[in-house]
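cache lookup: miss for this entity combination. No prior model stored, computing from scratch. Input as submitted by user K.M.:
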Amino acid sequence: MTTGPIEGSSKRYEPVPGAEHLRYPVRRIHLSNDEHFDVYDTSGPYTDTEAKIDVTSGLAPLRDDWDRPAPVAGAATQLAWAREGITTDEMAYVAAREGFDPEFVRAEVAAGRAVIPANHRHPESEPMIIGRAFAVKINANIGNSAVSSSIDEEVEKMVWAARWGADTLMDLSTGRHIHKTREWILRNSPIPVGTVPIYQALEKVNGDPAKLTWEIFRDTVIEQAEQGVDYMTVHAGVLLRYVPLTARRVTGIVSRGGSIMAAWCLAHHQESFLYTRFEELCEIFRRYDITFSLGDGLRPGSIADANDDAQFAELRTLGELTAVAKSHGVQVMIEGPGHVPMHKIEENVRLEEELCEGAPFYTLGPLATDIAPAYDHITSAIGAAMIARAGTAMLCYVTPKEHLGLPNRDDVKVGVITYKIAAHAADLAKEHPRAQERDDALSRARFEFRWNDQFALSLDPDTAREYHDETLPAEPAKTAHFCSMCGPKFCSMRISADVREYAARNGLDSVEAIEAGMAEKSAEFAATGNKVYLPVRAV
Amino acid sequence: MTTGPIEGSSKRYEPVPGAEHLRYPVRRIHLSNDEHFDVYDTSGPYTDTEAKIDVTSGLAPLRDDWDRPAPVAGAATQLAWAREGITTDEMAYVAAREGFDPEFVRAEVAAGRAVIPANHRHPESEPMIIGRAFAVKINANIGNSAVSSSIDEEVEKMVWAARWGADTLMDLSTGRHIHKTREWILRNSPIPVGTVPIYQALEKVNGDPAKLTWEIFRDTVIEQAEQGVDYMTVHAGVLLRYVPLTARRVTGIVSRGGSIMAAWCLAHHQESFLYTRFEELCEIFRRYDITFSLGDGLRPGSIADANDDAQFAELRTLGELTAVAKSHGVQVMIEGPGHVPMHKIEENVRLEEELCEGAPFYTLGPLATDIAPAYDHITSAIGAAMIARAGTAMLCYVTPKEHLGLPNRDDVKVGVITYKIAAHAADLAKEHPRAQERDDALSRARFEFRWNDQFALSLDPDTAREYHDETLPAEPAKTAHFCSMCGPKFCSMRISADVREYAARNGLDSVEAIEAGMAEKSAEFAATGNKVYLPVRAV
């Protein structure tokens, strides 16, 4: 199990304003100029040097002693409480984490524009919020399959993903030990955990979709609800009449859940139990405060199939189901594509917000091209950054192994860091109040040649340092006023620092000032400039 | 030296329509279903099994026997000839490569909306075109510095970059042996080569910008022109009065050329010789048909500095210089940022096209965030795809080592593949006539489990196969109707293939058809469905 702080930083817990009995986690990055920079922290107790980690007993049940208001008309959910005007501990906690006012959080949750996935049975989780008004979140998928991987590996992948910034985790296990794997993950996960219950239900009928029933599915949902799963993907929008719309596609149905339900619908020539029994499902979800992640079973699996009739027909049905779920006080988010060329991305967000009452959109990428297997973390980061900028609230990561194999530990890290990049780029474009502070802090460190600070402020300090070491290993190089791109005497950063000092010293920081004052100053510059470096070698 | 075809493909030369004495290169990808797919090929003779490669003697001078029209008013350039209504061999060649009409190519070049960088003294190069109406191109930077790397390494990096898809190459060497390194690269390069002559000029004055003169710069340009450099970056837009505008920036001046000229302007309190002698420079360029790459010496080096006064003041000056260069018959492209958040990207293209008469825009990324050193190929691919979609004609790649060190061979490949992704994603979004064909071919192969075809059609067949081998090494797995994500019996692709067969067989490919015909067919499906897989296990 990976523990200990990320290089250059330490874990802190800050009191939640207005709810001082709560403390939220922060990662404090320590800078060489005696300053520090605090960042949002998803890593849980694993990066806390004080914390005792024992996987067999799991994490401390953080939320067990938090206030839990009485159910509202049977719904013990953040949505129901928010609508009642109640600001829960979870709302205060996420408000503090993100730097928003608790009342704003309550209002966004009440409107269904944001969700706080927090099953009462998963007290180990540190609440977080998903909604377009907040920082864009990322989800990491893990899960073993018939082909490979063990429980220990999966738990370590969870800790590892959270360490590097995963906001939520989906356990997509399909092999043996599904229940046990999930139990280990939940008891040790500081971040919300999602599942696709139909996978386990299918195991129970020996993998034959036609044999699935409402009862088997319902019992599976309750089993997982009792374990503490925070959100569940339900492909209730796959209707019988939509299935043939996929027949002429280049890649048909690529969603596992979607293909199960399509097979069921065709075999029975009926609408699925997910659709016909949806309200009964809502009754279960609202007892635990499980959040719906309404699955896009007919999402496009290729550029050719993007934004087609099958995809948008299902989206319209998801919109109807969103209204039903909310009428039961159940939180909802909507899953999205998949594979979409850049010029068709915005329409997905526009339609989702229009049809689903602004429920948080949760997309898989999308990949902006199909031609780069082994680089689909990159093809999808392009689409992910754009769709997040357009309003998507959470991005499901894609690893370099997408379409080719199962991600290992390194793939998980690359996927998470890549998606932190896409999410942060979108936060900048959305002008999220805090987003640019980190860019500015890192760029100042870069400009001032504070190499160690630049590493510490980066999303992956270990790799940044490793790459710098490849060319300039010596520790002095970490404070040297140059880098390997230009060498010791060639440095544009250095010369522009000279320009700055010079201009500042002489008040030459405007067109007017320089045209007035440059003449007599220019000689002086040559002198001072040459003092800085002899000879001044700047390129 | 890396030679031999890329996996699953072979080199071909096709006759140029209307100019059958010319043949252009194509990479033919061979598919398992006896079909093939031809792609644009930048790799030169190195992937031709017939070709004899001898680095010491260089490539054959392909263009030596091509028709070269007489100069027009002193200008022996593609621009001057295009304006005269002459369709050159180079224009016919690039038209064939891209699948456009030669007359369309001529018109775009005549209008200055596209350039064909082809110095008469670089006959080894295979002509290519850069312009917003054509496929988006990518440039790879190489070059040793005071700190590291050898001539052999640089030549191999060039061959390697071209192999994976680099359309042009910039030699940014700053260390010793600049002249010799460039000679080796040019004589062996099938793609246009660009330089930044001020780097070598600075060597000649022992690195002191203040000692630079027009004469030293001019002689350096002529030396490089004689060697065959196809395009040169000239930072003629850095004016004295713009320099102080960078004083309050977070990262000042990050362009090496920009900082040299800024230092010169401040030291002499004059406009630079690049600006005052610009027309004399045009006279030299037009004799060789060297293309200007007007450098953005004041480009932003951080998110905070994007789209500021210094950047756009210089861009206006580049617009004036564009008009001057074109009046001398010299081809021009304009360099762009740098670091720009997503919401400020489009303004860069809009202004460049407005101020520079639609001259091809050539940008470095831009990086969409500053916080991910070691992943700046990804942060910049997001910005690159977006700025290319908006109209940028060529993208300068960024490698994972950006800001940290010098790229090695692996970094060069990752940078090139990442930028092929960004460029292709933009071609799709611009609905370039041929772009989606490759996505569709690969997606069909994926859907039909033609694994080897999927690898061969991908941008990096070697890595795609390697990743698949990690989980399913055996050769049979390359034809198996499943993948490691779902395992042998769990497969959404498989079940949707069943759906397709079923729907097609029964004409159930529309909402109407299925609502009419489903009832009696559903039973049949269960049967046929089960014939396909017993039990049907689809997830």
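stored under new cache key. The CA atoms of residues 380 and 398 of chain A lie 7 Å apart.
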